[in-house]
Amino acid sequence: MSISPPLNRRRDVRIAERLAYSADVTDKGAVFRTADFDDWLEGRRRAHHFRVQRIAFADLDGWSFEPGTGNLGHHSGRFFTVEGLSVHTDTGPYAHWQQPIIRQPEVGILGILAKEFDGVLHFLMQAKMEPGNRNLLQLSPTVQATRSNYTKVHRGADVKYLDHFTVPGRGRVLVDVLQSEHGAWFYRKANRNMIVETDEEIRLDEDFCWLTLGRIGELLRRDNVVNMDARTVLACAPVSSDEPGALLPDTGLLSWFTARRSETDVRAERVPLGQVRGWKRSEWSIDHVEGRYFRVVAVSVEAGNREVRGWSQPLFEPCDTGVTAFLTRRVGGVPHLLVHAKLEGGFLDRIELAPTAQYTATNHTDRIGDDRPPFLDLVLSADPERVRYDKLHSEEGGRFLNAESRYLFVDAGKSEAPLEAPPGYAWVTPGQLRWLVGHSHYVNVQARTLLSLLNTGAVRL
Hints:
Blueprint (H helix, E strand, L loop, with lengths): L12 H12 L9 H14 L2 E6 L7 E3 L6 E3 L6 E9 L6 E8 L4 E10 L2 E10 L7 E4 L2 E3 L1 H4 L12 H4 L5 E9 L5 E2 L2 E8 L10 E5 H7 L8 H8 L14 H14 L2 E6 L7 E3 L4 E3 L5 E10 L6 E9 L3 E10 L2 E10 L7 E4 L2 E3 L16 H5 L6 E8 L9 E8 L13 E4 L1 H7 L8 H11 L6
Parallel strand pairs: 5-11, 6-12, 19-24
Antiparallel strand pairs: 1-17, 2-3, 3-4, 4-5, 4-14, 6-7, 6-9, 7-8, 7-13, 10-12, 15-16, 16-17, 17-18, 19-20, 19-22, 20-21, 20-25, 23-24
Pfam families: Hexose_dehydrat (PF03559)
GO molecular function: lyase activity
Organism: Streptomyces taklimakanensis
């Protein structure tokens, strides 16, 4: 007679409770205290040599433009390539455009190791240099590595703590979900976002520190301290949401979103970089003919605490700072966020949920009236008393140079943002976003940054 194996609970509610407790702890019980953090981070900055210098494309080591296509790639055939993208759509102000795009088909790992100290869940964060960050050194996940990096195509050092995320049974998985990256600059790029809890004794490397969720939340109230990869992982944390209801029921929200995806006609095709129209290549950069949007540049990098101490690579550099904001309203006492079902050419599945406003304002200076991007002017002119949060955060520093966005939460009035949302927009609760971010390709990376602020207590609605 066979014996059935014991059943496991489908969901452990204690995880949400422990995360909530960690979000409430800043100094008390924390291994790494607030007063010591600034000195520690500055010490890590002084301990290593960092240098990033712009170079001509001809000076790239191991990179070249492919004869025929003009695509920019590495001689190993790994890491990533800069190619062209041609997009046709019936949505938005532009029916057709072409642009350079980063193609990186391999899936990277963004992993944060968690461990309990004195009854409080802590997270192992790394002081990591990325060449595109304006201030170079920021807090990153425990592991932040492409497959090419952690399989050592570059012949560099091992990625520290990698086994906790690649060897089954090394810990208890709290989060494991594929998420997209910037759909405007990456072609169908995804990373594995993970949080793994361990009971092992961890030998602490000098570039790493343990922080509570609340302490990370405090650091998120500063400009350019916590990097994008850490923010996206923290957004996926299964934090509980005590919400009695929502303006849209979950099935209604899914139906609305599925309809937006189904009804949007998008054809995004890779094309040779050398044939992309509206862009021009010089010795030092690839630029749009109107000087807008972004440019492709090359840099030489020296970094004392990376797996490889020196290398060169292409980077995408935006022409200005982005503006990324959620408008908020309370409905029946429950906070709601106005999401946008946004098309981006590089998305795997056409559309993802984005913040209310996600624009680079200077790209739209010649558009007036109804041609202006919805809600952009409302965000830019918001009364300071209505702005709950306004900080500058870097985007992906491993592929983008000086890419920063102002991230905001702005309380909206009834006339400014009615509950009957315009086409392409919907009011959702933070809990509904947390539910959707547990699945792949629903919530975009900019919305996940704003969600990470809620999950860590950096913003309370």
